[in-house]
Amino acid sequence: MVEGRLALEPEVQEIFKHIDNGQNFLLSGGAGSGKTYSLVQVIKQVIEENPTSKVACMTYTNAAVKEIEERVNHNNLNVSTIHDFLWDNIKHFQKELKATIIALANDEAIARIKIDDLEIVTDDYFNNLENKIQYKEYVRIREGIISHDELLLVAEYMFEHYPKLSDIIKDKYRFILIDEYQDTNKVVIESFLTHFAQSMKRSIIGFFGDAMQSIYDDGIGNLNAYKGNEDGEVREVKKEQNRRNPQRVIDLANKLRTDGIKQTPSDDKFAPNMFNSEVKEGNVLFLYSDNDSIENIKIYLTEKEGWNFNNSKETKELNLTHNLIADKAGFRILMDIYDKDKILEYRQRVKSYIKDNNIDLDFSEMTFGEVIEVLKQGKSGRALNAVLPTRTMQTFIDENPELYNAALNYNYSLFSRVYVDKDQLLDDKKQDEEDENKKGSKRDDLIKHLYKIQRNIYLYQNKQFNEFLRVTDYRTNVKSLEDKRNLKKNIEELIDVGDKTIETIISEANEKGICLVDERLERFISEKQYVYDRVKSVPFSEFQKLYDYLEGKTPFSTQHKTKGTEFNNVLMILDNGGWRNYNFENLFTGEGSESVLERSQKIFYVCCTRAKENLAVFYYNPSEVVIEKALEWFGEDNVKKI
Fold first, then answer.
1. N- or C-end of the chain: fewer Cβ atoms within 10 A?
2. Spans of the chain below 50 pLDDT
3. Angle CA(523)–CA(532)–CA(403) in degrees, nearest 5?
4. Which residues lie closer than 8 Å to 239 by C-beta, 6 or more apart?
């Protein structure tokens, strides 16, 4: 055996047997198995044995990038997110980039890139482009700017149609390692395992992850299709020890897995889940009630089990959706604006009607209301209903007449381009205050501006004066003692928000020089006036509650966002919140569609395995069949009615 390998864990030694044979490999490990530790061991040993070869390591988040860079600091290692890796390797081929975007826009079989509503895009489309094709947080194809989703499609097309690109990357990186592979888009995996195989250059591709934790719909989920094929075949190594969870959580998690991996406690007496050379027992509870009040459950866990819901670093309440959290965390109005606006849904209904019926009229100078009247002319019955609001849309309109009347008076050309999504409000949430923001936040420019205002307030309130001076727009004016006094006066006047609206606080922060209104906010107000008009009347105090939630200062988290984290105490709320992709009753009964059951089982597995000490799940008004399965999974002593 190569010197140094004896000190490696057995699974990594097995990986190097595949590397020696020139084979791609997959390390499959359950939650808490130490997959990142194995990844780091592989990187270090590869660099030691191949001192002149470069290693590329891709992972899902910037936080993971930073963690790996801190563990392995070497010039031959390039750690990045998948998007950054792809862009770094295709951005210099501008001619091919332009040709690819045009090809994707014109190919009906692949056409997921839309260019300016053009049916056919000619080869000279980008001839007058001032800058190169760029990759940013937003998409503006007419300006040559692609975003995250387009990048994956563009890269995959280029790898398929320009084989020399694979030669170049293989020449540059002898080893390409992909962490959290199950969350990686299928087109990325296709690039590395199918299109790369067109190149005769030699390169090893390694994957690390857990198919049971594939909880995102755009991820590939598993590599089963590649385990036995000839091109790009992948050899699997399983890692079955668990270093995070106590015994009772491990036992529960093993009942949920469907891929043959059965975890055992770590044989490392210094592992986090060990105490005095024995695995911690831990605690798992199935709590249910005829009352849907979560507060009663939290009171029980606080008084009887010693949990502290004021400590967001140690204790988390996991809900399936942000909508289930909005009321609890205090940002319901903002959530409804970004997620439940039926007037914008009606606007979309009108847009679709115009497109589907090939109505070729110039609406650019009309208001939204005038467009509706034009479409209604001469219609009756079913034809008329097609351009009218649905019943739920009409109910919303009846409840918000002033809002609807304002919408009718907006210029249709601008109003038709207004787009809102909850990610523009909620993206980039931290799990706790020490967590880092990720690159590529989807928050819109209004929310970013409000965030900056509250960041100023928070830093000053918490006496982080140096950081406050770095972020405030007032800093360029602080040249004397009098300037400092004025700054102190201005920020302290801004802090007392009381019942002031968001519009008032934006105005005061601008006037006081704390946070100046910039071009991005002005553009937002101009282009998305409808959204701004809704948000501006919301109390700023509600945004402050949203800020606390996004900064990880509350115990709340969605179940999807908690993946990759761990907490001493985890409370999972078994409520699908009307989301049809999940059904927790089916999880316990084994009924329902296979896809819904699989999603529910995986999200349940992920949430349960976040617990380092104690796990509790709450089910409102369960059936006898659900309780029976809970008794089987959790044990009689651990199923309690509250």
1. N
2. none
3. 135
4. 11, 27, 28, 29, 30, 33, 34, 35, 38
Work out the burial of residue 462: count CB atoms within 10 Å of its CB; fewer than 13 is exposed, 13-18 middle, 19 or more buried. Answer: exposed
pLDDT at 273: 95
Backbone torsion region of residue 303, taken as left when φ is above 0, otherwise alpha when ψ lies between -120 and 50, otherwise beta: alpha
Supply the pLDDT for residue 77.
95
**How far is the CA of 439 from the CAs of 171, 423, 493, 569, in angstroms?**
28, 14, 33, 29
Q: Please return the burial class of 60, using the count of CB atoms within 10 Å of its CB with bins 0-12, 13-18 and 19+.
A: buried
Residue 635 CA to residue 252 CA, distance in Å, equals 10
Q: In whole angstroms, how far apart are CA 159 and each of 167, 197, 332?
A: 10, 10, 45
> Residue 52 has which token pair?
């002149």
Q: pTM for this structure?
A: 0.88
Cα 278 from Cα 619, distance rounded (Å):
32
Q: State pLDDT tens for residues 103-154.
A: 888 876 555 677 766 667 788 888 888 889 999 877 888 889 999 889 999 9
C-beta pairs of 96-102 under 8 Å, 24+ apart in sequence: 96/158, 96/162, 96/165, 97/133, 97/154, 97/158, 98/125, 98/126, 98/129, 98/133, 98/144, 99/123, 100/154, 100/157, 100/158, 100/161, 101/126, 101/133, 101/141, 101/146, 101/150, 101/154, 102/126
Which residues, 6 or more positions from 548, have their beta carbon under 8 angstroms from its beta carbon? 329, 554
Place of tokens 């000053």: 460
Q: What percent of the chain has pLDDT over 90?
A: 75
Burial 156-179 (b: 16+ CB within 10 A, else e): bbbbbebeebbbbbbeebbbbbbb
Give the separation between CA 621 and CA 575, rounded to whole angstroms: 11
The Cα-based distances of 533 to 80, 209, 326, 502 in angstroms read 39, 45, 21, 10
Q: What is the pLDDT of residues 552-598, one digit of tens each?
A: 999 999 999 888 899 999 999 999 888 889 999 999 999 999 999 99
Q: Count each helix (H run) and each strand (E run) in the chain, helices first.
A: 29, 18
Q: For residue 552, how many C-alpha atoms fall within 13 Å in the half-sphere facing its CB?
A: 17
Amino acid identity, residue 394? Q
